[in-house]
Amino acid sequence: MGQTVPRIPNTLGDITPDWLNQHVFPDHDHAPITDLSYREIGDDRGFLSQTILVETTRPTQTPAPERFVVKIRPQTEESRQAEAVLNGFEREVRFYADVADKTGARLCEIYFADATADRAALVMEDLSAFTGGDQVIGLSHEQVKNVVRAVAPVHAAFWNDPRLDGFHWAPEKDHFTLDSFQAAWPDFESTYGLRIGPEARALGAYLADHIDDLDRLVASRPKSIVHGDLRADNILFGEGAHAGQVIVLDWQLIMRNLPALDIARLYGGSEPIMERNHRHRDVVALWHDELMRHGVTGYSADEAWNDFRLAALHCLSIPVKVHSLFDKTPAKRGAQLRDAMAERFFDCALDVRALDALR
Hints:
Blueprint: H1 17-24, E1 35-40, E2 50-57, E3 67-72, H2 77-86, H3 88-99, E4 110-115, E5 120-125, E6 131-132, H4 141-157, H5 181-209, H6 211-219, E7 224-226, E8 235-237, E9 246-248, E10 255-257, H7 260-270, H8 273-276, H9 280-293, H10 301-314, H11 317-326, H12 332-351, H13 355-358
Antiparallel strand pairs: 1-2, 2-3, 3-5, 4-5, 6-8, 7-10, 8-9
Helix pairs in contact: 4-7, 4-9, 5-11, 5-12, 6-10, 7-10, 7-12, 9-10, 11-12
């Protein structure tokens, strides 16, 4: 084996056969890795990490995987600062260490996970046999329902669970802080006002004046583990031998909050308006049924519907905050994402009469 290398890589150049042999696959029953090749994947979708698909060479056959995915800290200074503020890697590392195996959900297999103040890495199962979603294109209604079935066991496993109090690494508020809505709303309205229409403009203006009321209501509702960024770009769908399987990725924004936020984030942000066809109750009823099936009690269908509408209001902070942060970013796909989120989230909130839940 080569020289001693740091336990956690910091750049692409740190992902070497020596690092993999010493820290990721140190089992002496496995033939050592002698060579590797890699390529970046998902570079137009991830902001809080750099993701690399690695293929390795070994002199003999071994049960260790030959292909896997490595996530390390992002390389641009802007993205590194954002990840540091959000503490994304520690949140994801702790999710897989403390939460994943208690949910019963099909999640990505992890071979290595560690994070410090300045370095972080996850080595993950290669899921290239699965098809990734695309938030710009959107998800079909059936795909959305399949994702609901996949995430409901996570919600159910920690529903109002006292163990949540010990997960200090997962914040209670999400990264789209509501307290920025009022300040960011005027510029958002000037850009998107014509596209979202007068009803949506009135809704946004009302919410800007009553954002604290919404914050208090959301905080009073049931809590569980919440993905926090449940959208098409973070979802894989199985085909062929994996048909029917759905895997939710990227748990860097995990939090302890109202579980309905995930459902509103998914349906409101990733299912195109024309595809929805006013089938929001279909999605919420399925989510409620799945919660009951996985052991949640004392939570009525009416409560689930009311929580979904509160969550739909809360999700309006997403396009408003994203616009305030990235409206000058020239990337084509980034602009398409901002447009899709603005139009879809406001349409969803109006369609479900979300404001009634606040009033």
